[in-house]
Amino acid sequence: MIAEVATSDKIVVEKSTVPCGTADNLREVFSSLARPGLRFDILSNPEFLAEGTAVNDLLAPDRILIGSLGDARALEAAEALADIYAAWVPRERVITINLWSSELAKLAANCMLAQRISSINSLSALCEATGADVDELAHAVGQDRRIGTRMLKASAGFGGSCFKKDVLSLVYIAESHHLPEVASYWKRIVDINEYQKDRFAKRITRCLYNSLTNKKITVLGFAYKKDTGDTRESAAITIIGHLIAERARVAIYDPKVEEHQIVRDLQQVHKPEAVAERVSVCEDSYSACADACAVVILTEWDEFKTDHLPEKAPRPRHLMETPLASTSHAMSDDSLSDHSKMETGSSSGEENDAVLNGLASTLSTSDTAESMSQLTVSGKHRLDWARVASAMRRPRLLFDGRNIVQPDKLAALGFRVHCIGKMKQHFEL
Ligand SMILES: NC(=O)C1=CN([C@@H]2O[C@H](COP(=O)(O)OP(=O)(O)OC[C@H]3O[C@@H](n4cnc5c(N)ncnc54)[C@H](O)[C@@H]3O)[C@@H](O)[C@H]2O)C=CC1
Ligand SMILES: O=C(O)[C@H]1O[C@H](OP(=O)(O)OP(=O)(O)OC[C@H]2O[C@@H](n3ccc(=O)[nH]c3=O)[C@H](O)[C@@H]2O)[C@H](O)[C@@H](O)[C@@H]1O
């Protein structure tokens, strides 16, 4: 269409992430359709913004790439585009390179970011096996400035519309250039991501005594990351898919994702009848958590964080006197089955339960409790975790797929907390 209506030379700017060689293809298409004497310069100018931080990324980009054919006319076109960015981007951050480098650099950047996440996620499995703590590991490793700390947050798996697509696009390019070793190297980034989601889902099943049938599990967060309602390739889709397959009843709350979107996404992995029967989408966290035996955090929304809770929650004296209090620290997943005696209604279990059910109201009347049930921190909404604990059923498991809660604080409220890349299971009762 552009070629048909253009009456003067044009610069066409490719912003999307495209297969390498697209600019070359476009050039051929334009030259075959354009009126004689007209010239179309195709520039590659890939977009690097991330959802949730788009405006900041636009205003303060790390770099702007402008790829061109490199001849004098093309360099002139690249200069014209660079002049637009010069209005707010320092000149040294505008990099002019060749077309293929620019298209490949965009793919490579996303692949290397995804690779960092898969690297730390693969190490999280090793941390759970050995007793290392993946957050400590990421911090320690990241202090080496050659490595850096960003994109090293372990999670239940990366999502979003781009990482998987772009890694697989690189795999395809490598295959089509007969580079199978290169292709299989990058393919492993996606494989590890699938492994991580699968591993996390299986951990939930294992901790609930290998049966989820008709157990209510609450999922907090459905978007692929915070500050967006986008659910494309969200790890939540796969993980909830596992829970449905295990016949759990799943209640979902996300502050930004609409019910119809959640249902549509889950219908990609399960039949509509199974989704209708097993899934409910809730308006708020509290109704989602009522009567649940486990809560699973899948998006790192700020409202789920625990920074409003005091370092050490006040605990009623008789709670500290329970015989289990001194013996139940640092149990691994596998040792949980021993602990399941508590789940069969032992008197101490019931006593603990009664204590916990009273905990929220105790807290909301004491002075310290006032700070605990604060629902806002610096104007930001926070979940009242004591209220969640009192509304849940035993064993009050909490699976933090984003490592955003402080496990000791929630353990003090009666949760048994499982984090990514930490062997220790946190609970106090
Ligand atoms: N969403 C993001 O944060 C970022 C996206 N990008 C890249 O920008 C591009 C667009 O991303 P989104 O806006 O998120 O995608 P999107 O899926 O929301 O929009 C893509 C649009 O292109 C249209 N489309 C798809 N194939 C087409 C075809 N063959 N011919 C004509 N139209 C077609 C679709 O109908 C849709 O309207 C992608 O290449 C993506 O990798 C780059 C950086 C950030
Ligand atoms: O090409 C694109 O579309 C964009 O893809 C990503 O941006 P985006 O997918 O929006 O979000 P990220 O912040 O990169 O997160 C991607 C996924 O990885 C997860 N993640 C991120 C960082 C981390 O340390 N750990 C981790 O699990 C996020 O939760 C999310 O699920 C890149 O960061 C952008 O630079 C790029 O422009």
Characterize the structure shown.
The longest helix is centred in the first third of the chain and has 32 residues, at about 100-130. The chain has helices at about 1-5, 20-35, 55-60, 70-85, 100-130, 135-140, 165-175, 180-205, 235-245, 260-265, 270-280, 285-290, 315-320, 335-340, 345-365, 365-370, 385-390, 405-410, and strands spanning about 10-15, 40-45, 65-70, 95-100, 215-220, 250-255, 280, 295, 375, 380, 395-400, 415-420. The chain is about 45% helix and about 10% strand. The strands form four sheets. A six-stranded parallel beta sheet has the order 7-6-5-8-11-12. The chain folds into four domains: about 1-100, 3-Layer(aba) Sandwich (Rossmann fold); about 105-200, Rossmann fold, CATH 3.40.50.720; about 215-290, no CATH class; about 305-429, no CATH class. It is of the alpha/beta class. The structure holds 1,4-dihydronicotinamide adenine dinucleotide and uridine-5'-diphosphate-glucuronic acid (UGA). Uridine-5'-diphosphate-glucuronic acid binds near residues 113, 162 and 225.
Name some characteristics of this structure.
single chain; alpha/beta; two-stranded parallel ribbon; 11% strand; binds 1,4-dihydronicotinamide adenine dinucleotide
